[in-house]
Amino acid sequence: MAVEMSINASHKPNIQHWLAVLFMATCVTFAFWLTPHATWFEHIGSPQFENVVPRQFGDWVEVTDVVGSAIVDPEQQDALNNLYTQIVGRTYLHKPSGRQVMLSVAYGDNQTFSKQLHRPESCYSSQGFTIDNLHEEELKTSSFPISVRRMTASRSSTLEQVTYFIRIGDKVISGPPSALNYARMGMGLKGYIADGLLFRVSEVSDDAKLSNQLNDQFINDLLKEISPVQQAILIGPSL
Q1: Is the pTM of this model over 0.85?
Q2: How many domains does the chain have?
C-alpha cells in the first residue's frame, strides 16, 4: 500500500506539468492565430496617393502659386515622417467660383498604437489654432453616405473651415478617438494589419455654411472622377 501511494504521488506532479505545458502551447497557438499577418495596404493594391488623387478633375485644377495659405500639417515634419508613410498636400482652384480648397491626405500603412492617425482638431490646437463648432455630419456620396467631421479653426484674423474623414481598414469611422482602436482591432480579427487614411479639405473663409458646401462638392466631384477601385481606397468598399 505504501509503495502504491508513493507511485501515485510521483505521477501527480508529472500530470500537472504536462497540463501546464499543454495550456501554454494552446495559448501560444491561440495568440498566433489572433495575430494578423497580412496588411490591408497590400490587400488594396499598395496604393500611391499622389496618383490616386488627380491634379485636375471636373471644375477643379491644382494651383501651385499659392500665397499665404492657411493650411497646416498635422504635426511638424519630423513627427509626420514617423506617423505617416505618404502625405499629399495640394490646393485646388474651383474654376466657376474662383475659390480655393486645400487638400491634405495623410496615410499610414500600419496602424499600430504608436503610429495611429492624429485627428486634425488636436493637431490644429497644438499649433495655436482655436477650434470651434466641432461636430459630425453625414455626407452623401455617389457610392454611400460617409461620416465626416467639421470644425472652424481660427488663429489671429484667419478662419479656416475644415471637413475631414478617417478611414481605418475597410471603412470610414465615426465617433470618439476610441473608435480608431475598435476599428483597428476589428481589422485584426479579420486577419489584417489595418492601414489608416486622414482625408482633409478646407477653405479660408468666415462663412462656414458656404465652405462646407464647397468642401462637400470637392469630395463628391473627386469620387465621381476616380474609379470604383480608387473610391474604395479612399472611403472603403461599398457594403
Answers
A1: no
A2: 2
Grid coordinates representing 78 are 519630423
Please check whether residue 167 is in contact with residue 173, taking contact to mean a CB–CB distance below 8 angstroms: yes
Clarify whether residues 103 and 136 are in a common domain. yes
pLDDT digits (tens, 9 = 90+) for 52-104: 999 999 999 999 876 544 444 444 555 666 778 999 999 999 999 999 999 99
Question: Which is nearest to 74 in space by CA: 182, 175, 202, 184?
Answer: 202
End-to-end CA distance of the chain: 71
Q: Point out the residues of the chain with pLDDT beneath 50.
A: 2-3, 5, 7, 9, 26-34, 68-75
Q: Are residues 7 and 46 in the same domain?
A: no
Q: Is 206 helix (H, G, I), strand (E, B) or coil?
A: coil
Angle between helices 228-235 and 208-225 in degrees, nearest 10: 140
What's the angle, vertex CA 219, arms to CA 217 and CA 222, rounded to 5?
A: 105
**Burial class of residue 191, CB neighbours in 10 A (0-12, 13-18, 19+):** middle
Query: Domain containing 54: what range?
Result: 38-235
